[in-house]
Structures are given as structure tokens and as C-alpha cells.
Amino acid sequence: MTISLAFCLYLSAALFCVGVYGVLSRQNLILVLMSLELMLNAVNLSLIGFGRAFLPSAPADPSGPQVFVIMVLAVAAAEASVGLSILLAVFRKWRTTHSGEIDLLKG
Amino acid sequence: MDRSLVLLPILPFLGFLVNGLLGRRMPRWGVSLVGCLGPAAAALLAVEAFREVASGHEALTQNLGDWIRAGGLHVPFGLSVDRLSGVMLLVVTGVGTLIHVYSIGYMQEDPGYARFFAYLNLFLAAMLVLVLADNIVLLFLGWEGVGLCSYLLIGFWYKDLANCAAGMKAFVVNRIGDFGFILGVFLIYVTVGSFQFTSINAAAATTPAPGAFFWIGLLLFVGATGKSAQIPLYVWLPDAMAGPTPVSALIHAATMVTSGVYLVARLGPFFSASGVLPLVATIGALTALLAALIALTQTDIKKVLAYSTVSQLGYMFLGAGVGAYGVAVFHLVTHAFFKALLFLGAGAVIHSLHHEQDMRRMGGLFRKIPITGSVFLAGALALSGFPFTSGFFSKDAILHETLHGGHGVLYAIGLVTAVLTAFYTFRQFALVFLGEYRGDEPASTGAHGAHTDPHSAHASVPHASHGGAHAAAPGAHGGHGAAGIHESPWSMHVPLIVLTALALGGGFLNVPRFLEGSHVAAAGAEATGELSGLIVGGTAAIVGIAAALGVYVGAPGLRKRYVEETSAGRFLANLSYNKFYVDEAYGLLVVKPLSALSVLLFYLVDRALIDWCLVGGAGLFVRLFGYSLRRLQSGHIGAYAVLFVLGVLGFLTLMVWSAH
Amino acid sequence: MDAIVFHICGLISVIAAGIVVTRKNPVYSTVSLVTFFICIALEFLILRSPFLAVVQVLVYAGAIMVLFLFVIMLLNLTPLELKEDVSRRRKVVAGAISVALFALLATAIARSPTVRGAPDLAAPLAPGPLAVAGETEAIGVALFTTHALAFEYSSILILVAIVGAIYLTKKRRPLRAGLRPTGLEAQAPGTTESGAAPAPSPEARRAPALEVRASP
């Protein structure tokens, strides 16, 4: 059997879309952050897939995709930590993690 | 002289500025000085220009650069003096200065003294621009300027709304004519390609003349009918008598109303080629007749003269219409003399009687104000065309040219009108100066003679009930009791005397011969026409004078029998007194529908469409839009996230689409 | 063999993702998310990036998930507080959007000639630099030579994240007698040290019957 790049990309797209659904439809902010992680991982997968597929034609920088993924990983980690800290700070003040109740921006 | 042509309009204009801005704070004598200095200086310059042009110069020109420059269109501020404008200059500045001097005395009690002189100076400046212009657009500038001043001066005593209405009427009717004028100018540019008079007249030489020339001529003539009070746009001139008498003399007799004639004369070759001249002549003749018929029964001293002006202008257009431009201008000049004289004389009478204008309350004044009476007589003789007066020669020249141009019908109309002219003129003279005084002024003996004096009833055909009321009415106008009827100040007399001399002797100036040198006099050079023609004309005048004197002085019973007591007579007199109901007809046919239309438009467009739909609609739209936009700002970050992703979705769609 | 594992892992990861986004209890979601990460790591492995597979497990499953669990524990939400009242309409909208997005991406993938012409991902690689591209040594070299700048930036990013996390979660202590307040401490009085009640607005909005637990 073969793994086609197309399958890999479809998989990545599906995971990404599941993550989007999670971000849009959850009210608990923790779960929103988790869905965000889903999305980021989907992207990582697609990156590795591309790297594996096209490496033979780009020998100058064979580890490019991997380094990219590491950067994405770093960003995801930073974002998760800061996001959770914000969540904690908000929780301290408002005693809630529901996005529906944090609406001071209401115009 | 070439370089100082521009001074001619500038000097009166400076007078306007000084009197207009500072006049209130200046002493009376200062205002008078400034007011008369401008015109007088302009008169001197005009004499100088005239001399140069008379002694052989082709034309004096001065170009002050471009006035309008827009793409290919350019209108220079160009002034020029040739023989035609030289004559006009003399008339305008000469008669103008005399009338300015006259106004010193006439307007001395008026609080708006400085304003009057300012406006009068402005008028003179505009009229000079009109006469000096070498292209039709600049002429139009002067044209509009005199229209404006006419409006300002007719409504000079603005506190009385009737005067303002008269001023408005003059302006609006003029405007209708101006509309035709402007269209004509547009057509000129499109067909001839230039605004210069020389070019337009030169274009007339192209044969055959294109059809557009007829329309141009027609449209320009429409403008002329507005300015020069011909059928159908003459209705403003009688109403314009609401203004002070010097205004009537200067603007509505001698100068502004002659602009139309000047225009036609200036573009003489063009009009000759355009084929519109027969119409001009016909309208001129008909106007002359109609106005004369109306003047027969008017009771206001100035209205008679107003209709007389309309009638004489008709003569000028008749002359121009048969191609005799030089003769028409000749009549213009003589008319300026004697009509201004008559108006100023009437003004003197009004002044002496302390602003009484109704001729039914005058009479027998020759004994009381003989100087005024004499000058008035001179003017009346000239207007009637009494032999050897100026009017005799000029009117006769016109009739002569008409006859020899083959226009028999027009000649007949002109002749009949000449008789009528003499008749109504001397009717006026008799009513004002002869017989017994019928007014209310003290130191008058006529108050009780009203009953037995048949003259009191002469004008009462339409007002039969007022016959006996004159003596019974207390002194409604005799408010200045002790003063009585006296002569006017000398400042009013001097111009009158000068004008008398001109009116009587001006006929010997032989203007048409003088103008023969310029392009104007294409025909009709002979002022001293055939003897038979002169005899016929002179006879007509004498017949008319005799008839008038007979009816109004000699045999009053005649009038009673034929006019007052026959139904036909009453009907005709009524018709004439009510100006043939032309004003009423205009009101019904034009004014009423337009008013109704504007009311309709107000409710339909202004209220419904603009206020409700557009303005209200815009507000409503903004409000709704804002309302819906506001709901986007829910403060709910989930909703924001949705919008965010939607945006990304849209963007990606675009990318995929465009890459396909 | 690789291919079969890959496909199975793909399936499992999708199911795990589905579980993550639909559970009410965050702990369930967390566990499912860990499963997901492990599947992804396996897929990395199959795609010849062993280093990344390990890093994925270490960082994501090891560190980030632990972080999530700590926070969940810290928040200590009652079931009532966990109850979500997401309107049906919102769920439908979200579903529609994600389906649309998937359709879009699928179209792009299907249409792309590059993707069509790609080689088999399961094919063995010839020995050479390409074969070891996913290896630790190769990545390390690349990170410190070709992509050194990106490396430095990411380290700054992590530094910023650390500082931010610390600052945002710092407890604001009440004033001791004699000390002047800084602006920051005056801003956030919602602490429990002084025993003062926390900010009232969300309280007012909640049903009075709710039992509110103060945070530790």
C-alpha cells in the first residue's frame, strides 16, 4: 500500500476543521485552547507530509520542514502557557470560564 | 485717445463706488459733485473720441486683455469707437450728464440722495460698456448691468411694495428677452466662431446665408424686444414709471431702452442678411400703433410718456427693419432729446405740484409755471413731428424709407400712428397746461371750476361717477399748503433749456449722412428726403395737433357726444384705458400656470421627494445600517471568532478561485 | 505495513479529535487529546521524522497537557459551572463553517497538480542526506546554521511567554500597613487574602442559588 500525499493532506485538513469546530462552538475557554492545539498539530502533520514528499527535489535544506515544525511547536507551547495564564487571571476576577459571560467588550 | 477709452466707463463707476460706499457720510453738495463729475468727465472724453472718429479715423480701439478664456473660447475686454458708437456716446453721456444735473434739484428732499446718484452712475458706466464693447459678450455685460440698474432704480423707493413689484416685473420680463439673447450668442459662436462684431458682420457676406442666421437674428431680436419694450415684452415699461422721474428720463427714454436699436444697428449687415428684418419692421410698426392707441386715454402724466416711448421705439425698429439703420439711429438721437425733455418737464410739473401725477387734477399750469410749460411745449412739438423740429426730420426719414422700401402697409400704419402721436401729445399738453386748474393746490383758482368745466369729465368715461367728486374731495394732495405752485429750481431748468435747444434744432444734425461712412447706413442716407414726403409728414403732425386742441380746448362737447355717450365709444376708450388687457392676459396665460407649477413642484419635489425620500431616507438608511452594525459588537468573543473564521474562509475561497 | 499503520493512526486521531471537541468534562477532553498527540507522533515516525515524533510526545503530551491538567485542577469547576448553554444555532453555524472549510481545502488539494504528482510517502529513501533529514543530528545542524535566526527568535518568544505567564498569574497581595500602592495592585483587588469579596458583576448575573467556591 502507499501513503499518498493527498491522503495525508486530507487527514490534516480534517483534523484542522475539527479544531475549527471546537474553537467556534465551545464556551469553556479551556476547551477552546485545546481545540487550538488540535489545529496546530494538524498543520504540523501537513508540514511533515510535504517535507517527506518533496525532499528529493530540495536537497539544499533537507531539514527545513522539521525545523519549521519545531518553530510551530515552540509557538504552540508559548501560546498555550500564556493563554492559560490569561484564563487564570480572568477566572480570578470573574469566577467563570464561560466565554459568554466575559463580554465587557460589548458595544 | 485709444488708450483712454476705458476711462469712459471707469469714471462713472468710480463715482458709483464713492457715492455708494461713502455717500451717507458726505455732505449733499459733495455727493452732487461726485455724482455729476463722473458723467461730465465721461462726456468730455466722449466729445474727444467723437472728434477723432469724425475727422476720419476709422475706429478707436482699446484691448485690455482677455476677459474670458476657456479652452478655445476667448472673449477679450475690447472697447472700440466708430461713428455709430461715437454718436451713441455723445447721446448717452450728454443727456446723461444733463439728467444728473437735473437730479440735484429734483431729488433734493429725498433721504436716499447718495444712493440715487450711486445707482445712476453705475447705470451710466454699464451703458458705456454696452456701447463701447467690440464683441457681443462684453455688450451683454453692459446689457445686464443696465438691466440691473433699471431694477434698482425703479424700485428706488423700495418701502412701497408696489415699486418693488414694478422693478421685479421689469427685471423678469427683461430676463425673458435676455434668454433669447443668450441663445443667440451661443448660436453665433457655433456658426460664426467669434464674438467680435467685425467678424459677425463679415460673416454676413457669405451667400447664401445659412438658416442659422435667421434664428440668430430672431433670438437677438427677442432680446431687443425685452430691452427696448416692443411687442410682446413691452409690459414692463409703463410699470417702470414707479421710479423717480430722472430715472424714467434717462433709462426708460433716452438710453437703456435704445440698447435694442443699437444692437440691431451695430449688427446691421448681419441682420440684413439674416432675413429677420421684415419681422422686425412689422413688430416695430405694430408696437408703435398699439402703444399710441393706449396712450390716447391714459391719465397719468408719466404713463402717457411711457407709452409714447414704446411707440417711438417701434418707429426706430420700423426704420431698422426696412434696412435704414442710419435713419433709425437718427430717430434714436432726436427721441433722446425730446423724450428726455418731456420727462424732465413732467418731472418739473410733478415737483411743482408736490408729487401730483394725475392729469385730471392739473390744468391751466401754463400761466403758473411758464418756463416749464414752454420747454414742455417744445418737446411736444418735436414729438409730434411739427415741421422743422428734430422729430419732424427723423420720423419723416423713417416713413420715407419705409415707403420707398416698398412696405406700403407699414407706411400706412406709421402715418396713422404719427397722427395719433401728435394727438395724444397735445391732449396731454392741453390737459396739463391749458384750460382751468382742476387740482387741490391752494393759490389755484380751478377748484371750484370743476363742476362747470367739462374737462374734468373728459377722462371719466370709465369712471363716470367721479365727475363731480373732484371739487368735493378735500385737498388730498395739497399737503404743502402755503407753498403753492411754483417753478422748479434753476438746477432743473438749465438741463431743460439745453434739451429744448437740442430738441428743436437737433434735426439739422444730419446724423444719417454722418453715419454713412460706417457700415451702419447701408441705406437711407438722406435725412432731407423728398419734399412730398416731408409735406405729408408735416401735415400729419399738424392734423393731429389741431384735432387734439380742438377736442380738448375748443369743443369739449364733441368728445362727450362721440366718446362718452356712445356705447362703441365707451367700449373703445375702455379698451385703450385698460391697455388692451395685455397684462391681464399675461397674468392668466403665463403667470398663473407658472405659479401653479411651482406650487406643485414644491409639494411634489421639494417636500415629498427631497425632504422625505432623500433626506429622510438617507437618515433612515444610516440609522438602520448603524443599528445592524452595532449588533455585531456583542462583546462575545465566540461571535468574534466566528466572524474571524468567516473572513479567513472568504479569503481562502478567493485564493482557490483565482488559482483555478 | 507503514501505510496500514498510518491509515489506522489517521482514523484514530480523527476520532480522538472528535472526542476532544465534544466532551463537557475537560478531563475527558484532555485524555483524548493525549491520545491524539500520540497518534500524531506515530504518524511522524512513519514519515521518517523520529526526532519530531519524540519531541511531540515530550512537549505536547508531556508538558502542555500537564499544564492543561494543572489549570483544570486549579479551576476546580463544579458541574454546574461546567454546564454550557451553547445555542443549537451556534453549533450549526460552527459545523457549517468547518464543513465549508474542509470542502475548500479538499478542493484545493484535489485540484493541485503538485499534490497529484507527489511520490509515495511510504517509499524507502535512498541513503544520503535526505534519508537522515529527520534525524536529530541533521535537525540540530540545520537549526544552528541555516535557521539560526529563527531559533533565536523562538527562544525570545519563549522567554516572553514565560514572563507573561508569570506576570499574569501573579497573585496581587493586599497592602501592608505603611506601603504605598502601585497602580497594579490597586487594579486587581479580587484576591482572597484579605477576605474581600471578588468582583460582583458575574455574580450578579448568575443565579443566586449557585454555590460559588472561592478560588484557593
Structure description:
By secondary structure, chain A is mostly helical. Chain A is built from 3 helices and no strands. Chain A has helices at 5-25, 29-54, 64-94. The radius of gyration of chain B is 30 Å and the shape is globular. Chain B starts with 6 loop residues before the first helix and ends with a helix. Among the domains of chain C are: 1-82, Four Helix Bundle (Hemerythrin (Met), subunit A), CATH 1.20.120.1200; 147-173 and 198-216, no CATH class. Helix content of chain C is 65%, strand content 0%. Chain C is built from 10 helices and no strands. In chain C, helix 1 runs antiparallel to helix 2 and helix 2 packs antiparallel against helix 3 (50-75). Chains in contact: A-B, A-C, B-C.
Uncertain regions spanning at least 5 consecutive residues of chain A = none
Known CATH architecture of chain A: Orthogonal Bundle
Largest sheet of chain A: none
Tally of individual helices of chain B = 28
Q: Outline the biggest β-sheet of chain B.
A: 2 strands, antiparallel
- SSE arrangement of chain A, N to C: HHH
